[in-house]
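hi! just following up on the protien thing from before. the input was this:
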Amino acid sequence: MTKEFVVKKLVFNKLAKIMSDIKYKVIVGLEIHVQLCTKTKMFCGCALSFAQQPNSRVCPVCLGMPGSLPVMNKQAVEFSILAAMALNLEIARFTKWDRKNYYYPDLPKNYQISQYDLPISNKGYIEIPLESGQTKKIRITRAHLEEDAGKNTHTSGDYSQVDLNRAGTPLLEIVTEPDMNSAEEVRALAIELQRIVRYLGVSEADMQKGHMRFEPNINLAITKDGIEYRTPIVEVKNLNSFRTIERSIIYETQRQLDEFIETGKTLKMGNKSTRGWDDDKQMTVLQREKEEAHDYRYFPDPDLVPVVWTDEDLERIRKNLVELPIEKRKRFIDNFGLSSYDAGVLTDEKSLSDFFDEAVSAGGDPKRVCNLITQTGLKIANEKGCKVNELGFDAKALAQLAKMVEEGTIGASSANIVLAEMAATGQTPDAIAQAKNLIQKNDTAEIEAAVEAVFAENEQAVDDAKNNPKKAQKALGFLMGQAMRKTKGQGNPKLISQILNQKLGI
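and the predicted 3d structure came back as:
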């Protein structure tokens, strides 16, 4: 045994002993910035459009020119109220705008118009689905409206460039309580929130375009020798994918735990910091110590009037609420007997869930319609780069196809062929089934004759099916296959199986 091996073993044993005495809980709160899909910016008339020539969508207001005055975007405010209602938040009847002062090259005014002590809404919650099939309620502290900054780029050599097209974009910032205790829960909330804002139509929520950005605040509650320690909160900035959200939390959890083990203590709770995610190295990196609210020197914006809501205003906005994805999932499971997985797939997009609902309302069996969509429809839609409801057939045609399968007119495998042809040609399912000779034979006398012919040709298989328990299942499958062959694949499998069992006396 080498000296190096002995040292490594001693270190491992020491760490193992330390870990055995430690229990810890991950604590995560989340800040989410959602870009609202208005036509123009928050406080000026500049158009919002992605990937335009840098600094081509700007004006004196979003450039912070002296003497220019902001004008509030009414649609952005109403979108924010609608989202707040869906998140069970209390809507403030009186709210105002504040200036959040800080200097960055991508913020020409040297302040951001935001909301501080009187946000547009507060005290709500969102339910997230768990892997167990249950749900968990995550409290939401507040949701407020603000403008976005521009974008710095660092790809032009030894200097940076600033694109202000995004400056002034309306953002809804949603802040949760630290109620999440795993990376999986945070990911579930992020996915659920993306679905909600898309269902409402208030945001495209395309993370590749920066429409949603996530900033988890992470720390640990560590118990050692009966004493609880709290690690300082770390905010990981500007995450724009579910994968990086999950990985950054996993990494930061381990980093904070390792630091505690190495030092045997934690820093003061006030020592907050912000870190960025390095995707190449798969780790967080320190950016700066976190500012506190007083560092921003908030004060009411003198150029914007407060916003006051009446009951009539709020009721008008509330009429735009829709059935939310988690409510739809519950209904699909409870009313239609779908699995949690299938219900999740169908409610991923509002257009898909609505299409499924329409097909069921038109008489399609829920499970059969679900199978047609999830097993074939989504695959074809993905290949064509469109949505299922854009494939060229309506929900009534899908319901008709589902009925044909349930009634035994065509088989389940043939239904997939028909669905693909419906997407390609727009023809009705019955016309396609007739043209492709996919209609199943349901003539009892004809099928009985085919079964009797199979029995006559395969006496040993018949004997095994009747009298040999070890070979009965295999023999029955063989006879079924032979009967299908006799009917040239057009015999109704249910009817063939029924006649086989009847004649075998099983």
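The first helix runs from residue 3 to 20.
Residues 325-435 form one domain.
cheers
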